[in-house]
Structures are given as structure tokens and as C-alpha cells.
Write a structure and sequence with these properties.
alpha+beta; disordered N terminus; 6 helices; 167 residues; 35% helix
Length: 167
């Protein structure tokens, strides 16, 4: 793991290459959602955490805390059910870099930042329909527990809600 961290430094949101982030994000919009320059800019303004590997070209993670003015059904579910949290809005690793532990590195970094800020839980959702079994397996292996489910976007998507208590 230390070897991976030495090869891939984590860049903060000021250093992210927005074009690379948009390209990587939109190639995986089925799992997340499409972004354009304006919506990415708005998301980054609200972000509690926005960091990436190779300036976001290889991997990136964007998360918000409970105070963000984010209009999103999944974020709203957590606002209704939890007093405080850090919500992972999206994490994407380029296909060529999968299996190298980059998502685990970004999650570890996020948890460290969240804990330092006094947060005690990280939350996210994973698609049930369309299915995302790789993400389900990853989150369970990281210690996340299922805390709910919902049908969103007029029933076209079903999600599973996860949380991990930071120790």
C-alpha cells in the first residue's frame, strides 16, 4: 500500500484538472451522473472533500458534509435520517487503474479529513438497479453497513444506502 501512495500522490481540488475529471466522470455517468463544467463547478463549491490521483485523471472522490445546499435525492435521504455525515457523492477510478487500491487510498484520506473535522460517519449510496456489484463488494469490504434503500428518479433507479462509522 505504501508503494502505491508513493507512486500516486493525492491532489486537492485546487489542483484537479477539471477537463480530466469531467471526462472520467462522464465516461461513468451510468454509475454516477453526467456533469458539465457548470455543474462540476457548483459541486466543487459545495465540497467538503474533493481530491484525486494524477490531478483527477486517474481517480477522484468528491464528498459533501451535511451542511451542503445540495439538491439530490440520495443526499436528502441522509439529511432526513442522520444529523451529521460526510456524503460521498462520487468516486471514479479509471478502468486502466482499477485493482491498484486507489479507491481505498482516497477513502482512507477522506476518513482522515472527516475525523479531523469532527465527523463520525461517512455515507454513500450504491445502485441496486442498475446493479453495481463491484461497488457493493468494495463498500462491504471497507466496513460500510447498509442502512436503507430507495427508488429514485421516478423509479428508474434503485439504490442501497451505506454508512461507515469512523473510529
Amino acid at each position: 500500500m505504501a508503494e502505491i501512495e508513493d507512486i500516486h500522490s493525492i491532489d486537492d481540488f485546487c489542483s484537479l484538472d477539471r477537463n480530466a475529471v469531467l471526462s472520467l466522470n462522464n465516461a461513468h455517468a451510468k454509475e454516477t451522473s453526467v456533469l458539465d463544467e457548470d455543474s462540476l463547478g457548483e459541486l466543487l463549491k459545495m465540497a467538503f472533500y474533493a481530491r484525486g490521483i494524477d490531478r483527477g485523471a486517474t481517480a477522484f472522490l468528491i464528498a459533501l458534509d451535511q451542511n451542503a445546499p445540495y439538491l439530490n435525492p440520495n443526499f436528502s435521504w441522509f439529511k432526513e435520517h442522520r444529523e451529521s455525515f460526510v456524503y460521498i457523492d462520487r468516486i471514479i477510478v479509471a478502468p486502466s487503474a482499477r485493482g491498484q487500491g486507489l479507491a481505498k487510498i482516497l477513502y482512507g484520506d477522506l476518513c482522515g479529513v472527516a475525523k479531523q473535522a469532527g465527523q463520525d460517519r461517512v455515507v454513500c449510496e450504491v445502485n441496486i438497479e442498475p446493479p453495481n456489484p463491484v461497488s457493493d463488494a468494495f463498500h462491504l469490504a471497507m466496513g460500510f453497513k447498509e442502512v436503507g434503500k430507495a427508488a429514485i428518479h421516478s423509479g428508474t433507479k434503485t439504490v442501497r444506502y451505506y454508512e461507515m462509522i469512523i473510529r
